[in-house]
Design goal:
CATH class of the largest domain in chain A: Alpha Beta
Number of helices of chain A: 14
Number of domains of chain A: 2
Strand content of chain A: 15-25%
Helix content of chain A: 40-55%
Number of strands of chain B: 0
Shape of chain A: elongated
CATH topology of the largest domain in chain A: Rossmann fold
CATH superfamily of the largest domain in chain A: Glycogen Phosphorylase B
Oligomer: heterodimer
Distance between the termini of chain B: 79 Å
Helix content of chain B: over 70%
Largest interface: A-B, 35 and 28 residues
Distance between the termini of chain A: 24 Å
Shape of chain B: rod-shaped
Structural class of chain A: alpha/beta
Radius of gyration of chain B: 24 Å
Chain lengths: 375, 189
């Protein structure tokens, strides 16, 4: 099939939706489909061959933070041209309620349109204000996909209609083998954390508290942290004598991200909420890292109710310390969890996920003809 | 002799009393001016967000721009505790929308476009002015309330200590505005 994918957020900054779109595009290409992606990006940006730039994204306040989006008539005409050139069998937009290219694509296109919803939108009142504007563009979508239950609820509550649930994918084989970082995991035990350090919902402060509780009894224990944020603020939360046992990698490349996951004895996901889908969990599972995660509904589902990773009470540092300590002392249990995780993670491999997505394309495309330019 | 002293004391007390009540009257006027300025500022902000919402739902813009504006305008109207932040966000959204290349040219000739754009431009200018005058009144009141006489005799009564209203209300980015040497906002250059 000829598939046109629309990414609303700039291609030049890494992010969940953009990772998803590139993963899906590559999986579809592997399956032999023809794929073109349009995304906000500078015209002279270095992009994969399947990505068409829609022009520089503009930073604007959206949904409580600053997002880089493409909007306006000129962006719409770039989308129109891309649609004409692409002559697609199906148009697949991502996050169609975001004020960017996906919404514009729904506006200017006619024919089989599939949409994937990623984020849960807590700021529903603003969405409500925009509802009449969204309605006419969104009612053209003939197949809706949600990556997680929370995203589906947003749709049902605020935009109307329902969606099929297809999770986010990972390229499992890329995670399976990697050289640990030099000196890791070491003999005294290493805990790992991956994610924004300054985003409270990622729960790093809970892990730091748990680490402080465990550190006295375990003189060799270290904490390995990869992610963006202020390193000083993080170290301030740990007593001074323990600070040289907290290793901060900062923001790391994709390759080092995988190496980092292979460098830990126990991977911790202390998130306190807002996570529509546990992408870091799936990455850790694919890497074979034993996992301790907060018992959020989304995490519970990904970890099969605790079979593929230990769950602790969300927000409770003491139970995290206890669960992580138990795992550090029990290599057998760690191996069992890692083995269960590597089986459970297969359902999130892009080869499986993309096949489900293609089924949605097939359900939608024949009845609706080809994608045409409406406006 | 004592009679003379008594008279002097009474006169002094009377003069002090008159002076204090005159100062209290001044402070009262300042508070009245502050209240009026606050009222004008609220009205200007409301007018700006309503006009932005009107433009968003007018069908003149593409849906992405409309959603962006509608969200920002709605947040500005409903975000009471974090109002300054939400109003600044609305300014930034307006700035992003109006600084699209050929924005005015693309809308030219469409019915109602010119009226709405100039209404929004004038509403934004009104916010800029109203905020300047409000902060001016805040500064004057703050100075007056820090005087020892006002503090000792509690001339301000229970009126809350006024705070500045700090938002980004310039419709040209800060660096460009400096280059132009003007502090008035313009939607389009």
């Amino acid at each position: 099939m000829r598939v046109g994918l629309v990414c609303p957020y700039t291609w030049e900054v890494p992010g969940g939706v953009r990772e998803h779109v590139s993963g899906l595009a590559e999986a579809l290409l592997d399956m032999g489909h023809e794929v073109s992606v349009i995304a906000p990006a500078d015209d002279d940006a270095i992009l994969p061959p399947y990505v068409v730039p829609a022009g520089r994204a503009v930073p604007v306040p959206y949904n409580g933070s600053i997002a880089r989006l493409s909007f306006g008539f000129l962006s719409a005409s770039r989308v129109r041209r891309w649609l004409k050139d692409g002559d697609f069998d199906v148009l697949h937009v991502h996050e169609p309620a975001a004020p960017s290219l996906s919404l514009l694509a729904c506006w200017v296109a006619d024919g089989p349109i599939v949409a994937t919803l990623h984020a849960a939108m807590p700021r529903s009142r603003a969405l409500h204000a925009a509802q009449p504007i969204l309605a006419s563009a969104l009612e053209k979508i003939s197949g809706r996909i949600a990556v997680a239950e929370a995203a589906r609820n947003t749709l049902v509550e605020h935009l109307g209609g329902d969606a099929v649930l297809i999770p986010n994918g990972v390229h499992v084989s890329r995670y399976e083998k990697a050289e640990p970082l030099p000196g890791f995991p070491g003999t005294g035990g290493t805990l790992g954390f991956l994610g924004r350090m300054d985003e409270p919902r990622k729960g790093l402060d809970i892990l730091l508290a748990a680490f402080t509780m465990m550190a006295d009894e375990r003189p060799g224990l270290r904490l390995l942290i990869a992610g963006r944020g202020d390193t000083g603020e993080v170290l301030d939360q740990v007593p001074a004598p323990l600070r040289d046992r907290v290793v901060l990698l900062g923001q790391v490349s994709d390759a080092d991200r995988i190496r980092m996951l292979h460098s830990v004895d126990v991977f911790c996901a202390p998130n306190t909420g807002g996570e529509s889908f546990g992408y870091v969990l799936v990455e850790a599972m694919a890497s074979g890292a034993p996992i301790v995660a907060s018992d959020l509904e989304a995490f519970r589902q990904v970890l099969r109710g605790g079979e593929a990773g230990e769950l602790f009470e969300t927000g409770n540092a003491a139970t995290l310390a206890e669960a992580a300590g138990r795992l550090l002392d029990d290599p057998g249990r760690r191996a069992t969890l890692a083995a269960a995780a590597s089986i459970a993670v297969r359902e999130f491999d892009w080869s499986v996920v993309a096949r489900d997505v293609v089924r949605v394309y097939q359900a939608v495309a024949p009845a609706a003809g080809r994608v045409a330019v409406a406006l | 002799m004592t009679a003379l002293i008594s008279v002097i004391v009474i006169v002094v007390i009377a003069m002090v009393g008159v002076y204090i009540s005159w100062r209290a009257g001044r402070l009262d006027r300042l508070h009245a001016r502050l209240e009026a300025a606050r009222f004008a500022l609220d009205a200007a902000l409301l007018r700006r967000s309503s006009t932005a919402l009107e433009l968003a739902s007018s069908g003149l813009l593409d849906p992405a721009t409309s959603v962006l504006l509608a969200g920002a305008a709605h947040d500005a109207r409903s975000a009471e505790p974090a109002r300054e932040l939400a109003e600044s966000d609305l300014t930034r959204a307006l700035r992003a929308v109006f600084s699209q290349p050929d924005f005015r040219a693309l809308l030219a000739g469409r019915e109602g476009a010119e009226e709405l754009l100039s209404e929004l431009e004038s509403a934004s200018h009104q916010v800029f002015l109203a905020r300047k005058f409000y902060n001016d009144a805040v500064a004057a009141t703050q100075v007056a309330r820090q005087r020892w006489l006002v503090r000792i005799f509690r001339l301000a009564g229970r009126a809350p200590f006024p705070e500045f209203f700090e938002i980004d209300d310039s419709l040209v980015p800060a660096d460009e505005a400096a280059g132009r040497g003007a502090d008035l906002p313009h939607l389009t250059g």
